[in-house]
Amino acid sequence: MDKVKNLLSPLASGTINDTLKLVVIGGTMETARRASVSAWNGFVDSFFLTAHFSQEDYPVSGPPQLIHWLSKQPAWGRSREFDITTRTVGRNAVTQSTTGDLLVDDDEDDTLVHGHKKRKVAFEPSPETTHTIYYRGHWLRITRTKRNKDYGHASELKISVVARNNAILKQLVLEAKREYEKDAEHRVHIYMADTTWGCWTWAGARQKRPMSSIVLEPGVKDMILADCKDFLYSEDWYAERGIPFRRGYLLHGVPGSGKTSLIHSIAGELGLDIYVVSLSAKGMSDNKLTKLMGRVPSRCILLLEDLDAAFTRGVSRDEKSTGAPITPIGLMHGSKKDPDNDGESTLSLSGLLNSLDGVAAAEGRLLFATTNHIERLDPALSRPGRMDVWINFKNATKWQAEEIFKNFFPCKALEPPIQSTSQEGETAEQKPKAKRKACSVPILEEAEMIDLSKRFADAIPEDEMSVAALQGYLLRNKTRPKEAVEEVAEWVIKEREMREKLKKEKEEREAKERKELQERERKEREEKTVKEVCISSVHPASSHV
Ligand SMILES: Nc1ncnc2c1ncn2[C@@H]1O[C@H](COP(=O)(O)OP(=O)(O)OP(=O)(O)O)[C@@H](O)[C@H]1O
Asked: Origin, by domain of life (predicted)?
């Protein structure tokens, strides 16, 4: 009994009583505080209008437009929590001066620092934090959430405002869209298919490439550009005739002949964004592709790159398909699996065709598909209605070689091709001059240019070198136009030797692979025969059944 008393005695003492009281009072106060805070938040929230922008809306009014807009707001620069990125979100990114102040950097500085061109530093809203900025007489509360696969949603931007109606939010979205489009006057925005989410991810914006820098046989560029423009203006015409408002272009031919470059130029010329899909990407499936196609905005370029690679590597062809793609040796051995992606692309040809022109497919888009091997394509894929215009890209002609040379070196009289990209307020001469200064390229006289470009073209064999190869040679000689002409014949010989060597190596490799395959098949046949012999000797009657 004494022992129990001894145990309970400290509880009865005044110190413990006081401590307990303090704990109870403290706990009650904290609970009351939390309850009041949450009640206050609930009360305040009831006055807020809130708009949610999910990643799924990227192409239309989603975060890139808003983040681009936010990054330009002076109030945003004063925000106390932000992510810093060197990915340019717009031409006028918000940047930090040497004194630490945030400022808008409009400067296209070409100076190199440690071999790198100076990069703009952009300030973006930190995720999972609420930021407050003042906009047209209203306080906006802005929160960006991160992607969360577990909860099945991608990144999201939430904007709340105290207002009687949603006019202010509408105004903000329109302003952000306008600013973004203004930025797009100088750049082409690229979106990549995200096969994890089945949505489009903004992959950055590229400086527009002038059409004049693409050297194709006369008339080709004008034809394709006119066709694209005509299509974009013909919505009513298509609707009146009940024809799906879509147009497909198949650019096929040798590698490095300008297919991708032409598409980027057309996008710049027509002010369209590019949506790129790699059909053989890991995780690609019929459903994902259909979902992606349904989320393509109406006016854009949809680019399916290396269409043939999808057939031979990623796309599993269903029984109904009619084409006969060439299967690479390594994949012929009874397996449909792609060694590069563990066979995780489960896209079928019928899935691809349905997503291109099924009910969910977007109208008004220009579909561009590129391939180096047109003979591998399924006829169903390249038929008119899916691919309406076919353009064959060949190795460089002499005429192309001459034009590439002229485009490459500055000339006093000839107009420099980069002029058409000149930005606002920039005189026609400024930009080329800056570039000449940066790499000290001699300026050729007109007569000299004509003579050199002709001699250069004479040394280039017709339809043998790709334009990319010529560009590579000229790049190595970008400050030595005369030497480039004098040494070109020698380069052609070396290129031929190199190609001959690569071809021989490839043939040897293929012959070895073929031999290995034949050997494997012979062994399998032998094993099969042995097994059959064994079975028939164990169960002699089974062979007569
Ligand atoms: N016709 C051309 N006019 C101007 N530049 C060209 C042309 N063809 C190729 N080039 C240059 O060569 C490089 C590769 O071109 P591009 O990627 O457009 O070729 P491609 O045909 O799409 O090649 P691939 O089939 O291998 O994807 C680019 O840097 C581009 O500037």
From this structure: Eukaryota
Pocket test for ligand 1, best of 207, 224, 260, 370 (most atoms within 8 A of CB): 260
Alpha carbon of 426 to ligand 1 centroid (Å): 28
> Among candidates 147, 170, 145, which has minimal Cα distance to 51?
170
**Do the beta carbons of residue 93 and residue 109 sit within 8 Å?**
no
Do 297 and 245 reside in the same domain of the chain? Answer: yes
Rounded to 5 degrees, what are φ and ψ at 222?
A: -65, -40
Residues contacting 161, CB < 8 A, separation 6+: 48, 49, 138, 139, 140, 141, 168, 169
Are 212 and 176 found together in one domain? no
pLDDT of residue 377: 87
Mutate to test the pocket of ligand 1, among 206, 249, 261, 304 (most ligand atoms within 8 A of CB): 261
| Spatial contact of 398 and 467, defined as CB atoms under 8 Å apart | no
Higher pLDDT, 418 or 301: 301
Distance 463 CA to ligand 1 centre (A): 15
Cα of 80 to ligand 1 centre, how many Å?
45
* Same-domain check for residues 195 and 335: yes
Indicate if 256 and 317 belong to the same structural domain. Answer: yes
Q: Which domain holds residue 510?
A: 494-544
pTM of the prediction? Answer: 0.68
DSSP 439-458: HTPPPBPHHHHHHHHHHHHH
Q: How much is the pLDDT for 94?
A: 36
Q: Whose CA is nearest to atom 25 of ligand 1?
A: 255
| Whether 293 and 339 share a structural domain | yes
Q: What is the pLDDT of residues 177-220, one digit of tens each?
A: 888 777 777 889 898 888 887 888 878 788 999 999 999 999 99
Q: 299 CB contacts (<8 Å, ≥6 apart)?
A: 232, 272, 364, 365
- Residue 443 · residue 391 · CB < 8 Å: no
Tell me how far apart the alpha carbons of residues 262 and 209 are, in angstroms, rounded to a whole number: 9
Q: Tell me if 432 CB under 6 Å of ligand 1.
A: no
Q: Measure the CA–CA gap between 48 and 29, rounded to whole angstroms.
A: 28
In this structure, the answer to whether residues 322 and 350 fall within a common structural domain is yes
Q: How many domains does the chain have?
A: 4
261 within some domain: yes
- ipTM of predicted assembly, 2 dp: 0.98
